[in-house]
Amino acid sequence: MAARRKSSSRRKYGKSASKSVKRAMHKKKSGTLKSGKGRHPKVKSREQAIAIGLSEARAKGAKVPRKKSSRKKSSSKKSSSRKKSSSRKKRSSRKRSS
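User: That's the sequence. What structure does it adopt?
Assistant: Structure tokens below.
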């Protein structure tokens, strides 16, 4: 018989990560959690509070999975820049004809 891996039993997040998320949620509920340093607005959504807690835990070196990097955004940026450059060429040709 082959040995099975139990990936679901292993913790994805460490205890210190859950503590920092808990602290961020308490700050959000009390209305003192802000989305950055300086004059930024207060956090209103639960998801944003969790994200702030996890990012603080990452900075402290807690066990937190890496952020998922999106590859689709980079391809859309390239296509949008191509569209802009082609529209500039069209505009310049219009000016010359008139």
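The mean pLDDT is 77.
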